[in-house]
Amino acid sequence: MKLVLLGPPGSGKGTQAKRLAAALEIPQVSTGDILREARRAGSEVGKRAAAIMDSGGLVGDDIVNELVRERLGRDDAKRGFILDGYPRTTGQAEFLDAYLAESDRALDATLVLDVADEHIVERIVGRRTDRATGQIYHLEYNPPPPGADLVLRDDDREEVVRARLEAYQRDTAPLIDLYTRRGIVRKVSGNGSMDEVMERLREALR
Ligand code: ADP
Known about the structure:
50% of the residues lie in helices and 16% in strands. The protein is α/β, with parallel strands linked by helices. A five-stranded parallel sheet has the order 2-3-1-4-8, with helices on both faces. Strand 5 and strand 6 form a beta hairpin. The mean pLDDT is 94. The site of adenosine-5'-diphosphate has 18 residues, from helix 2 and helix 3.
């Protein structure tokens, strides 16, 4: 299964991508995670991406495409993958198609998580990640266990969230049309509990 998971920031994409990846036994490939890891490691790419990420803008296609090429070239991605947070621009979508075509591959489905704008900001500003395990929680909707060592992502502050939403509407939402024309889009409501959303995603793939 070669899948793309699309949805606005705060739609639960990362959480669902992890669970779906585990259920389907394919890797989750999150460009956001890869970029955050590059920042932590202090690499050249990480340094170039840092300021852009903190402002809520999009890192350049060239950088992100190269990261994806490297990641999808690894053995564990040969059987399939779930792309989370990529592609985010038409340039990235074109690169992905061309890259997959090199090995006679193509996407099987694009899952789109639908969440109303008004829910997004509250979802994101309550989000916390466990520093040790990477597990994602929400202070209200999915409370962390007591004593967890929690961090707020640098770009989860409200003003940055608004910029990320704008980038999504402007640059990423058009990809839904592109994949719809190709007949591979499956829309799923992102409202409700994480289990409910997960069940809908699995149903959409049946
Ligand atoms: P979210 O989807 O919740 O906004 P991500 O973890 O996917 O969060 O991405 C965080 C930030 O990393 C983005 O705001 C952007 O700056 C950068 N980023 C991640 N993926 C891409 C991408 N495919 N293209 C450009 N920038 C990206």
